[in-house]
Write a structure and sequence with these properties.
- This protein is mainly alpha-helical.
- It is built from eleven helices and no strands.
């Protein structure tokens, strides 16, 4: 818990020192470069297959960060960045401007809405908004916001309306350490305390959070 609090303190200090960062991606160029992406993420950025993430409406800075780290995962043999058998290979031929253009394009689109099953609303809302102090689990809303919109400056992703199946898989990867490109291991430190049921409830809850 102390590690998470320290990470947030460092992050907030860095953000206060700089009001914003210029993002020089080109939306039109990104649209032209996105044809290959559409196979998995959909022509409008809303992945038709739920194991792939929706990219529409995601923060450009976050998309750019993930693309650079996916490429780093491949070039380092998984020692750095984020390693994914499919996406790391797809990111390999992209140069820096390609990544910025793609990020700008997908962030300009609208993410499709999802729904939250009634049977997880109460438990999901409690865990997301308040966490679980007894187990040392902080509120998800502390970083991702009360509506799950995240933060562009902090590079915390928008997680509301995301496919539950994708959220579930990423929380499991953070928990078991197969994904480790989170700031100071914050997501691993949180996910390792989540049960399978917690992850299932949160994933479904986020599907319709707005």
């Amino acid at each position: 818990m102390k590690k998470i609090a320290l990470s947030l303190t460092i992050l907030l200090g860095a953000l206060s020192a700089s009001n914003a960062t210029a993002f020089d991606g080109d939306v039109n160029a990104g649209k032209e470069k996105s044809a290959t992406c559409a196979a998995c993420h959909g022509p409008d950025g809303n992945a038709p297959v739920n194991i792939y993430p929706k990219l529409a409406g995601q923060h450009a800075d976050y998309i750019y960060k993930q693309l650079t780290e996916l490429k780093s995962g491949m070039t380092s043999g998984g020692k750095e960045g984020r390693m994914d058998p499919v996406m790391s290979a797809m990111a390999m031929p992209l140069n820096d401007q390609d990544m910025k253009d793609l990020a700008a394009y997908f962030s300009s689109l609208n993410m499709s809405e999802g729904a939250t099953p009634k049977d997880v609303v109460d438990v999901g809302a409690m865990l997301y908004k308040a966490g679980d102090a007894e187990r040392g689990i902080p509120a998800c809303a502390a970083c991702h916001g009360p509506r799950g919109n995240g933060s562009s400056l902090a590079k915390f992703p928008k997680i509301s309306f995301q496919h539950p199946e994708y959220i579930k898989s990423q929380l499991e990867k953070f928990r078991d350490g197969t994904r480790h490109n989170d700031l100071n291991g914050m997501m691993h430190d949180i996910a390792i305390k989540l049960t399978d049921k917690d992850i299932e409830v949160l994933s479904k809850y986020l599907g319709g959070l707005h």
